[in-house]
């Protein structure tokens, strides 16, 4: 191509083909039936042989029929010649005069290579297209327009899909039936086959693809490309990470299954931490590593024989011994008989060496020896003192005289659902089957508890896995793959089905309505006519009320196509009540209160328990843990008094009124008030003649040391309303809902896992959470996209399009503004028609627009339009018609570029064309600011036969770039064969040529810009090099 404007530039002809790697599919045409009863060509001649002189039918030698298909861009005025922009294809000779493909007729979805033409494409499918289907007669490889049997031209729109469109074409010579469809290649989706989604399970992503090409993360993954693993539930994501689902790998300084326990300072003995590397000492411990015992007395109890221990400094103590004892630990008896060493009623007498016992009749020995004093029973066995011996009551897992022999618990087969039982020292271990847990593998871990089945699938628990029973329309391990909801077509009464995300939509005709267009429409159901005056009526749109308490889930199990489930925002103890504008309230069950029914009403306020009892709050109830003696227990019910003694019930114990000189707590002895069971919990008994006294150990009180001091709860160790239950040196905190930990100090994270959708921010409370929704969303979990079109903000018949936190009004012609409330211009009248403000239309080779009542058109001199002359009296060819009122006439000065050109003429005009007066002509050397010349060089082998120079020039005048150049100035385009190159056409362009056309009048002078030659060749797409 050579372009000249004062300076001549030479450019190499190039053909650029850009492959869009993100789009892929194919156009498929399947022939069904062909009917050419007479065996004729489009010009009326016989395909082969001569016509019978009697019935004028062609001879028995039939046509050798084959088909050619050309697929190109959508054209308003279709040209059957030129480049097939989207592709082309053809068949071999597939039949004679009439034939059909039965498999294609009976089953259109069945693969059938006969009569099939496939045109692949590697670009975004434009939906609109022009399809030219031609039937030809094969004649020894010769291809001439004379061999054309029939031509079908179709301009339409088609979306990719599996369903075919069946087309019946009835021509003058032949008729044929065929079907078409567009399909995306594997892993390509969307209305343009330009959405790529390839399932993968590797480092780059873990997802599957649904029927619309949307990624769906596999279980345990999240993120845009499903590359972020979902850590173990409860894992502290600030202190733990995971590279695979279900993991929780702690960062440096943290430990525990959820990475919520800090590591203390190395060597820390009796200390804890809140942050890593701390060593905060526990109670009664001190020192840098908390290794110093500040309460040696309480920990070791070193003082014997009732001595009182006093801490002096870390790891040091002193014992204050009672009368009769001395030594570091009060282990030395100074008055031997004070401790009553003689058993069985023996009388103690002090002697210089210690003491000696005077035994009663039937007893002998220096003293009574307690064989259990040395704690001979191991592994928690209980020692029973006997005469001259002892007996050990062992725990179930131990045996032997002193409970030191490990029992093989596996002999009793305690493991129920396990691979094996392993005997351990003091116990056993069961290796459970998958899906079972517990000490004996007797607790079933329900694989369906997490709800793995999607889209309403029903979960069935297997031995070590689960199985999903999917509803109709879904497949896959977890029912995650949805089949095409429009196949088969659920719409009735010939309505067209459109696939949606997890649903379908039926485009009903005016006479039907309903989900599947199965109901007759009642046009009088809503009457828009009110009053008698004429007014602008904007039809109201029925918009479903936003239900803040339910979530619509698509399903095929209901007639409506959706399944409404609760959003569970009010938790397990409340019922959600929907309010306008996405709000809601919660109606709580008895015993609960709060915005989300998350607070258990404290039934312990005011305190209902008396006499120092500890109240434990329940649900609309409470329970009292009473101190010893206040449970209304009759201590005399078991008849503890012996030998005729009378029992008196007291607080947490009893008193026996002995008869006939019997002594002791239970009237069991004639000699002493004390025995081994008189004082409880390690207390020491002292005989005072007619009564006894118990000296209790620390933490115990009462006449028999049977009442524990609840000293551990005196410091109120339980935080955040927790209830302390203690006894002796230990306590337990019963936490309120929402708190956890040994002292109820940790607020349970109600925002894990993330409950808020659409970018909502979760605010964690105490046993509740709140979703602060992003703008444009509402509802308890931010699932509801607020419909800003609900208030009908768009006026004057405009269409409202809901967006995120906004709306868009699509205004009709003549209206503008955010609400289409502004009138932006008046209509124009042109050629007897009225055009709204802003509308555009074509006027021959020019484009016109109405601007506030004024018609503005481009100013290209279109010239006389080429047309095809009538042939054999059959009428003009419809592919190159003349405007109404004109006819195709011969023109002797047409210049032929590719013979034969005798079929071409020009459209007649009522007035003769004005003479041309310009120096800017093809093949001339004239140039100025309003004159440009272009040389078009063609490859003769590719130029269609019957092309004239006037054809080329007419195509140039219809190019959009020509209309752009002629926006303000009149543009004249002249063409002629090049004098110097027989393969070239010279083009001259004049930008200020005067005209007499009313819509082209302009005498202003415009400068022609530098025009890229590729724009002239490719913008309209009808020129071919």
From TrEMBL:
Functional description taken from the UniProt entry: Putative Notch ligand involved in the mediation of Notch signaling.
Keyword Cell membrane part of the UniProt annotation: no
Membrane-related topology note: Single-pass type I membrane protein
PROSITE patterns referenced in this protein's UniProt entry, alphabetically: ASX_HYDROXYL, DSL, EGF_1, EGF_2, EGF_3, EGF_CA
One Pfam entry name: EGF_CA
Source lineage: Eukaryota, Metazoa, Chordata, Craniata, Vertebrata
Protein name as catalogued: Delta-like protein
Positions of the DSL domain: 182-226
Residues annotated as signal peptide: none
Gene that this polypeptide is encoded by: LOC112261695
Listed GO biological process terms: cell development; central nervous system development; exocrine pancreas development; hepaticobiliary system development; Notch signaling pathway; thyroid gland development
GO cellular component term of the entry, any: membrane
Alphabetic keyword roster: Developmental protein, Disulfide bond, EGF-like domain, Glycoprotein, Membrane, Notch signaling pathway, Repeat, Signal, Transmembrane, Transmembrane helix, Ubl conjugation
Localisation per UniProt entry: Membrane
């Amino acid at each position: 191509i050579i372009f000249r404007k004062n300076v001549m530039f030479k450019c190499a002809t190039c053909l650029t083909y850009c492959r869009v790697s993100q789009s892929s599919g194919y156009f498929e045409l399947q022939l069904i039936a062909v009917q050419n009863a007479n065996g004729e060509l489009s010009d009326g001649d016989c395909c082969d042989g001569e016509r019978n002189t009697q019935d004028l039918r062609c001879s028995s030698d039939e046509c050798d029929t084959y088909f050619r298909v050309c697929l190109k861009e959508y054209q308003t005025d279709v040209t059957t010649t030129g480049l097939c922009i989207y592709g082309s294809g053809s068949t071999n000779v597939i039949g004679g005069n009439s034939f059909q493909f039965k498999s294609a007729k009976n089953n259109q979805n069945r693969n059938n290579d006969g009569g099939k033409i496939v045109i692949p494409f590697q670009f975004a499918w434009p939906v609109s297209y022009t399809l030219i289907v031609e039937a030809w007669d094969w004649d020894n490889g010769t291809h001439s327009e004379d061999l054309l049997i029939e031509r079908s031209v179709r301009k339409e729109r088609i979306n990719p899909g599996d369903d075919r469109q069946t087309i019946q074409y009835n021509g003058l010579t032949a008729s044929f039936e065929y079907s078409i469809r567009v399909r995306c290649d594997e892993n390509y989706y969307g209305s343009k086959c330009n959405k790529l989604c390839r399932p993968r399970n590797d480092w780059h992503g873990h997802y599957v693809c649904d029927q619309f090409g949307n990624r769906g993360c596999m279980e345990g993954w999240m993120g845009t490309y499903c590359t972020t693993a979902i850590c173990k539930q409860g894992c502290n994501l600030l202190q733990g990470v995971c590279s695979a689902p279900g993991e929780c790998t702690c960062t440096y300084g943290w430990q525990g299954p959820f990475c919520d326990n800090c590591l203390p300072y190395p060597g820390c003995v009796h200390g804890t931490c809140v942050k890593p590397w701390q060593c905060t000492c526990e109670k009664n411990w001190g020192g840098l590593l908390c290794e110093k015992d500040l309460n040696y007395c309480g920990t070791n109890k070193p003082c014997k024989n009732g001595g009182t221990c006093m801490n002096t400094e870390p790891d040091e103590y002193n014992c204050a011994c009672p009368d009769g004892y001395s030594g570091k630990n009060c282990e030395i008896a100074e008055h031997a008989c004070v401790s009553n060493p003689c058993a069985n009623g023996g009388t103690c007498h002090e002697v210089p060496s210690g003491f000696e016992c005077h035994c009663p009749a039937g007893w002998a020995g220096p003293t009574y020896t307690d064989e259990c004093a040395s704690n001979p029973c191991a592994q928690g066995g209980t020692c029973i003192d006997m005469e001259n011996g002892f007996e050990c009551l062992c725990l179930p897992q131990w045996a032997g005289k002193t409970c030191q022999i490990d029992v093989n618990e596996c002999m009793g087969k305690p493991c129920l659902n396990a691979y094996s039982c392993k005997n351990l020292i003091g116990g056993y271990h069961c290796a459970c089957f998958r899906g079972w847990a517990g000490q004996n593998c007797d607790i079933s871990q329900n694989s369906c508890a997490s709800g793995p089945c999607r889209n309403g699938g029903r979960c069935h628990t297997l031995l070590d896995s689960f199985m999903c029973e999917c509803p109709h329309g879904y497949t896959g391990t977890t029912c995650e793959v949805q089949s095409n909801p429009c196949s088969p077509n659920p719409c009735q009464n010939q309505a067209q089905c459109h696939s949606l995300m997890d649903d379908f939509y039926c485009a009903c005709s005016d006479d039907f309505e309903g989900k599947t267009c199965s109901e007759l429409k009642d046009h009088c159901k809503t009457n828009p006519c009110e009053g008698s005056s004429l007014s602008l009526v904007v039809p109201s749109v029925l918009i479903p009320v936003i239900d803040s308490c339910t979530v619509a889930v698509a399903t095929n199990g209901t007639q409506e196509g959706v399944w409404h489930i609760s959003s569970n925002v009010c938790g397990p103890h409340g019922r959600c009540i929907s309010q306008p504008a996405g709000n809601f309230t919660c109606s709580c069950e008895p015993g609960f209160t709060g915005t989300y029914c998350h607070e258990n009403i404290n039934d312990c306020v005011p305190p209902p328990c008396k006499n120092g009892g500890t109240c434990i709050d329940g649900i609309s109830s409470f329970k009292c843990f009473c101190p010893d003696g206040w449970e209304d227990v009759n201590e005399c019910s078991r008849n503890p008094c012996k030998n005729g003694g009378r029992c008196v019930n007291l607080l947490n114990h009893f008193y026996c009124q002995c008869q006939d000189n019997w002594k002791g707590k239970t009237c069991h002895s004639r000699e002493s008030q004390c025995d081994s069971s008189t004082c409880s919990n390690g207390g020491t008994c002292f005989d005072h003649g007619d009564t006894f006294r118990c000296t209790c150990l620390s933490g115990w009180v009462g006449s028999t040391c049977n009442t524990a001091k609840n000293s551990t709860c005196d410091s109120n160790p339980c935080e955040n309303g927790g209830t302390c239950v203690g006894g002796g040196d230990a306590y337990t905190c019963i936490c309120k809902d929402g708190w956890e930990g040994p002292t109820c100090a940790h607020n349970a994270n109600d925002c894990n896992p993330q409950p808020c959708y659409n970018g909502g921010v979760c605010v964690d409370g105490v046993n509740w959470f709140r979703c602060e929704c992003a703008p444009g969303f509402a509802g308890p979990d931010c699932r509801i996209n607020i419909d800003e079109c609900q208030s009908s903000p768009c006026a004057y018949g405009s269409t409202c399009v809901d967006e995120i936190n906004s709306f868009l009004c699509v205004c009709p012609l003549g209206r503008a503004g955010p609400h289409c409330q502004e009138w932006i211009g008046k209509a124009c009248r042109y050629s007897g028609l009225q055009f709204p403000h802003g509308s555009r239309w074509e006027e021959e080779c020019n484009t016109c627009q109405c601007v506030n009542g004024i018609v503005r058109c481009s100013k290209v001199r279109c010239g006389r339009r080429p047309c095809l002359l009538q042939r054999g009296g059959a009428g003009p060819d419809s592919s190159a018609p003349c405007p109404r009122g004109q006819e195709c006439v011969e023109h002797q000065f047409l210049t032929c570029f590719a013979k034969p050109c005798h079929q071409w003429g020009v459209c007649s005009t009522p007035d003769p064309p004005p003479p041309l007066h310009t120096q800017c002509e093809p093949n001339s050397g004239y140039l100025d600011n309003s004159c440009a010349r272009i040389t078009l060089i063609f490859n003769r082998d590719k130029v269609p036969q019957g092309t004239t120079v006037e054809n080329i020039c007419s195509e140039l005048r219809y190019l959009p770039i020509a209309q752009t150049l002629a926006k303000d100035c009149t543009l004249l385009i002249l063409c002629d064969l090049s004098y110097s190159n027989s393969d070239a056409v010279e083009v001259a362009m004049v930008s200020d040529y005067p005209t007499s056309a009313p819509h082209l009048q302009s005498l202003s002078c415009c400068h022609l810009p530098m025009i890229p030659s590729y724009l002239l060749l490719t913008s309209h797409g009808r020129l071919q090099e």
